[in-house]
Design a protein that fits this description.
Blueprint (H helix, E strand, L loop, with lengths): L2 E6 L4 E3 L3 E9 L12 E16 L33 E5 L3 E9 L4 E9 L8 E2 L3 E12 L5 E11 L26 H22 L4 E7 L2 E8 L3 E3 L3 E7 L7 E14 L12 E11 L5 E7 L8 E2 L3 E14 L7 E3 L8 E3 L5 E13 L3 H5 L7 E5 L1
Parallel strand pairs: 2-10, 13-22
Antiparallel strand pairs: 1-3, 1-23, 3-7, 4-5, 4-6, 4-9, 8-9, 9-10, 11-12, 12-14, 14-17, 15-16, 15-19, 18-19, 19-22, 20-21
Length: 387
């Protein structure tokens, strides 16, 4: 029996273009209750990253797969196929890397191997939607002599920040900040600079503030104004907005604001023409606002959510969805006077005419620092199997 343990060095969330570093440890455990222990032998072990794509058959019409590319050897259990037994299609994969050949482990002995691979910048982000899914995994294949291959899969999350692959780092390393007391490999140094560059670009893009004012009106007049200071955010931030109903002609009785994603299938892949778009609500604020002059809301963008993106199959966009309930009468206090003789009591009316209308405001949501997103990731940095 051999235990295989895979541990991601920094966490289970990465930016496309970063280097994924994983330490894989093979151990022949020495049990205290075992009376006879013997050496264990592995023929080889290999590792590879792949992205698995799965689409809902009811919503997505994918072109038929090319049967001429069918590999007969893939059906053999002694051939390393990272996505064996997985649903969907493998749309992206890195070249496999051999960790070792002919490994012999004595009782109680363990050996570790480091796997490093740059994540492709042209792949989609990790996404689990209502119509499609993009799932990234690191698969480690191990095989004993004359035995089937055993697979250890390590799922992780990929965030995509557009523009990183077009950035050219300066050739003069002297201008880049570095620690002269540390010897860094070129790949790791570039990876660190890539993460720093992404953080800087995100900060610049999401820190710009300018006043955006919108008039809220229906067919009968002005209800109020809405104010928001920016429309570009990164996941983990709060979307904050304010309302001013004091200048409105139509009383607003209630409003609600929903933070939503809009998942739409590209026209050529739609199962039926004009099929509806899928919406997902991530946060919602609702408030009764009769006789309220000003109000505000704060909606958090979950760190576990996917920033906006577009592929050849699907696009994901973010928006604020507003719903307003206004009085059907432009004037009046919506209160009635009681019949008590000594005191005056005002109570709300039992029935009143209302109008409802909605409004959508598109916003842009970008990734965040992958280390920050790792704290709320559903994936574990450590995975293991026994073979």
């Amino acid at each position: 029996m051999i235990e295989v343990l895979a541990k991601l060095g920094r966490g289970p969330v990465f930016l496309a273009g970063e280097v994924l570093d994983c330490v894989i440890t093979f151990t022949n455990p020495l049990s205290a209750s075992s009376t006879s222990a013997s050496s264990e032998m592995l023929a080889w072990a290999s590792a590879q990253i792949h992205c698995q794509f799965h689409a809902s058959e009811n919503r997505v019409a994918l072109p038929p797969s090319d049967g001429s590319k069918h590999d007969v050897q893939a059906e053999n259990e002694t051939v390393f196929v990272p996505n064996r037994g997985e649903r969907g299609q493998c749309i992206l994969s890195t070249p496999p890397k051999i960790l070792f050949c002919d490994l012999r482990l004595d009782p109680g002995e363990s050996k570790s191997y480091s796997y490093c691979e740059t994540l492709p910048v042209d792949g989609p982000p990790s996404f689990r939607g209502q119509s499609v899914k993009y799932v990234y995994k690191l698969t480690i294949g191990c095989q004993r002599v004359n035995s089937p291959i055993k697979l250890l899969r390590v799922p992780f999350r990929v965030l995509v920040l557009h523009g990183l692959k077009d950035y050219q780092f300066p050739q003069d390393e002297a201008v880049a900040p570095s620690n002269p007391f540390l010897e860094e490999e070129e790949g790791l140094k570039k990876d660190s600079r890539l993460a720093d560059l992404a953080t800087e670009l995100l900060m610049v893009a999401t820190s710009r503030r300018s006043l955006h004012l919108y008039n809220i009106s229906n067919t009968r007049g002005k209800v109020g104004t809405f104010c928001i200071f920016k429309t570009v955010y990164k996941i983990g931030e709060d979307v904050i907005g304010t309302f001013n109903f004091s200048e409105g002609d139509i009383p607003c009785l209630q409003f609600s604001v929903s933070l939503q994603t809009e998942e739409s299938i590209q026209e050529e892949f739609q199962r039926r023409r004009g099929q509806p778009v899928s919406f997902t609500v991530h946060a919602r604020h609702q408030e009764s606002c009769l006789h309220t002059a000003q109000s505000s809301f704060s909606l958090p963008i979950p760190l576990s959510s996917t920033p906006g993106f577009t592929t050849n199959v699907v696009s994901l966009k973010w928006r604020l969805h507003f719903e307003f309930v206004t009085s059907g009468e432009s004037t009046g206090t919506c209160l009635v006077r009681g019949s008590q003789s000594e005191a005056v009591t005002w109570t709300g009316v039992e029935q009143m005419e209302v109008d409802t209308f909605s409004w959508d405001l598109p916003i842009k949501v970008l990734p965040t620092n992958p280390i920050l997103a790792s704290y709320v990731s559903q994936f574990s940095s450590t995975n293991s199997i026994t073979i």
